[in-house]
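Internal QA ticket QA-208
Title: Verify multi-chain structure generation after dependency bump
Assignee: T.L.

Test input:
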Amino acid sequence: MTTPVEPAVSAVGVNKTFRIAEGFFGRKRDFHAVRDVSLSVPQGATLGIIGESGSGKTTVARMLAGLHAPTSGHISINGAPVFDAKGRPTAAGRSAAQMVFQDPYSALNPRMNVRAILAEPLTVAPAASRSEIDRRVNELIDQVGMSSAALDKYPHEFSGGQRQRLVIARALARKPPVLICDEPVSALDVSIQSQILNLLKDLQEELGLTYVFIGHGLESVYFMSDRISVMYKGEVVEQGTADDILLRPAHDYTRQLIESSRAQPFKSRRS
Amino acid sequence: MTDFIQLPRVRKPARAKKLLRNIPVPAMIGLVLVIIPALVAIFAPWIMPHDPTVIDPSKALIAPFADAAYPLGTDNLGRDMLSRLIEGSRISLLVGVLGVVLAGSIGLVAGLAAGYYGGIVDALIMRLVDALLAIPGILLILVILGVVKPGLGTLVIVLGLTNWVIYARQIRAEVLEIRERLFVEAAKNVGVSHTRILIRHITPNVMPTFIVLSTLSVATIIITESSLSFLGLGVQPPNVSWGLMLTTGRDYITNAWWLSTLPGLAITGTVLGILLLGDWLRDALDPRLAV
Amino acid sequence: MMNESASMLSIRDLSVKASKRDLTLVDGVSLEIGAGERVALVGESGSGKSLTCMSIIRLLAKGLEISGGSISWQGEDISHASSGRMRQLRGREISMIYQEPLTSLNPVLSIGRQLAEAATHVHATRADVLTMLDRVGFEHPERVLRQRPHELSGGMRQRIMIAMALLGKPRLLLADEPTTALDVTVQDQVLKLIYDITVETGTALLLVSHDLGVVRRIADKVAVMYTGRIVESGRTENVLSDPRHPYTDALLRSAPSLESKSDRLVAIPGRVPTPSEWTDGCRFAQRCEYATDLCLTKPPVVEFDDQAAECWHTDRLVAMEGAS
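Actual output:
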């Protein structure tokens, strides 16, 4: 008899409501960005979240990463809650799920060199020793396929794809079990996107990571994910295995999405 | 990992060497215009041909280039112009630098705090800034100096206290923009403390603005000091400053132009040099423009 | 490279340089667009596709200039035309829509005001404007006139841009990544609109994009650009199903698809060289699996049926197709 293993990521009944001031005199209104979202990701698997802008997927990602507290609901990583009763991120919540950001151009401090950028997460308590940090930094740069010559350079000396590798390296610094990838390749050139997606898959295999992958296009989400949740206007309207979603879509929005992604020519040309 | 990534070929000579290698012409001019007064101020005691305070009515109002012993002429009390210019540089530059250090320190801290923490800290600081900005600078200075005895120390303090607001406003605006950037969020995500974020992430990115503001401030402060001395509220005799020299020369503009013109040129040249240098320095320190 | 008969827009050997840094950003591009044709310029960042498009109506940024070649519009050389002539052309014969409608539209003015501005320039009436708004899909055109850009969604704003661009009944519409900033489902709707409207009015289209899916949807012909040059061109269905240039082939293969779930993508190694790294020979060689010493010199253009590629080793690709 095997003991049940905790899902790597678990969200139950998560809601996020923002108060927005409307009009000149600031009439307050509630904006329900995320409504009653529940999801669960098994160890070592990838959950893809797809939806248009305004669907709440980015807000969900931020909550999972410990950046915003949910208005209600419970989020845990490997069984440990991400937020305490007061809505503040717990220590585990801060370090368990790391975010890989969409924009490699603003995700790195232009005035810090790569070594400093990668070392920074390691200097937060409990801080590692100088030599441990050096060793880890070299390990990280190698893991993302770049040479140690990169360590003394500054972000602007790298291309978009390379910067994204650095963003990933930094996210891995403290060996988090979970990575939340918020459209990690949307800002990159097409020919580079595949390199980064491959890298993410390689790292997942090598390090046993669990991913939550927010995607822009269905193709990349389908490629990366074992399971997919489709979000629309703040709610999860459909979820299932990647193939389930693709071959047996139940919701209108999902069907529309698949149709648009098929990219058939509008009309057969006569001339 | 199979993909080996070719790093772009980037020449990387030592920073200092690179800085000095490609200095554009305006910066060169700026450098010269600033170094001369700076050196003069430092080596003043050794290069002054005469004692700037010695009065000799028999030698009054000698024109420049007329007498070898007084190459830039003398003023109405027979004091050597060259020596007075040299001595004046010390005070003018000292006041300028100290004033900026004071104003910059207060302004930087205030701007960082207001921009980063927001809320009540921001509200308090900005109301203070608004209040100070609402009062015309000169008026404020005059009021203060009317109450406290004029002197070098007072002068520096007053100039510092009236100029910090400019920094605070501008830096706060920068901080508001920078703190939204992803790399700050990433640092917070990892659990980096606020203090460290301010020091490591926010401040270095605010530096270009700070530098430009500082150069403008030095310029403003030197000119303000000159105005105050002109009005008799700044540097007091027997101390010498360029502003004071301007005052003295006021009555002699028609018959002895050099009394006011020479210090005037000194002020203009120095201020121009600082501005040019500041522009270049801001760009030179930006790692993004270094390639 | 493309069929030259009856073309309205003819670009021959166009070069664009960044004058200050002496860098060539568009390197000898030739393109023909016939009446009513829909042509796509596809490429990644740095390929020069946007610059090529901007050169047509001379909207190059400061510091950039046309350094060689020519652009002819209905027989007239417009690469050296006066700015007065260009102003006449813009909006009336050749129109352009951009990627981000929020920045192209003035946030403080109402839509009506901005459309009025465009209408005046092309001598269109209010009735024309309302008809156009209806055509681009607004149910209540009157209401739209009173709104401000931020009150509308991205897709709606882009429809306004299309309306504005087509008011003057141009013969050619230039579209620079018109759907990139939009959500996938909205992208589709806007693309369909562009397609339908250009077919209806017989307007030719030059679409600049990095998205092969978009190209497949809407373009008759496509030119693939890489590092300032056109590396392959031809009928869309030919190029996309049967590429003759290794770059096009690699691009198509590296994209994740919905057809099958693969474990890894066939990624293109290396990265796109920056303009200062461009050589005279084939610029894709360093990333290409078929590269040989021949590639150190500029490859010839090899012509096929309705397709052409600038490569020394097109035969290798044909061989691959045969094998699979």
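Spot checks passed. The beta strands of chain A are 9-22, 27-41, 46-50, 72-77, 80-81, 97-100, 178-182, 210-215, 227-232, 235-241.
Status: verified.
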